[in-house]
Here is the input.
Amino acid sequence: MDLSIIIPLLNEEESLPELSAWIERVLTENDLSYEVIFIDDGSTDNSWNVIENISQKNNCFKGIKFQRNYGKSAALNEGFKAAKGDVVITMDADLQDSPDEIPELRKMIIKGGFDIVSGWKKKRYDNTLTKNIPSKIFNAAARLSSGIKLHDFNCGLKAYKRKVVKSIEVFGEMHRYIPVIAKGAGFKKIGEKVVEHRARKYGVTKFGWERFVNGFLDLFTISFVNKFGKRPMHFFGFWGTVFFLIGLASVIYLIVSKFIYTDFSLTNKPAFYIALTAILGGMQLFLSGFVAELVARNAAERNVYLIEDRIGLS
Here is the structure.
């Protein structure tokens, strides 16, 4: 199969018929074999019934319905597990991503040799103050911390080699940083393509202001996990050793000073309490490192979600 297209959605009943017809037309014109997997992330409108009707007309359209809302990362992770195409495309369901971009994105993977191609919405139709400016800040921080030179990490329109999506795990709110996760897994050929961004035609955005705070927290998390996820003791042990040695050296200095200067008041010095704090902090970091090593080696499955229904998927 040439393509798997994964589309997470939440309350998008109005846009789904137009989107599915558009995708079908583009892929038929380009003579591509495909599957489209809609992931209904706990919609409360008629989205699932619309997906069922679309699937009845064309069995290339499939669906997964979550029991409740888990978030975009969970939806993408389930879609990645189900995908069978040689190239996997992700896109949003709100018609702001154009299906006309799909053939060229696939071509960059197949002929360009990229592991990932990320869309860049160079011209945006979002609110400048609430979305565009914060996005620029996020993208700058992500470029700086990851070394990946992308302009738009959060663009929903991306293309992947099948091996990439089968090798990574997306959880929490990490969908914004899939290129960072993939780079951490060893997929370093990451490209970018300017794509068309369209104004929202139906409904309203499902993302609020809290996603900006979460975005920075996720960036710190993924940077730490990529570097120390398999060896947390290297981080906690190093800083534990540093603080312990600083505290120990301070205590030795204070004790020696007490013997040399008999009127030296040991416990009245701020350095005494700073030294004790450093020693205790170092020991706690060491213990945190040991606990993190145990957790890393014995972690249970994180991505387990209740699925209410499936269409076209075993």
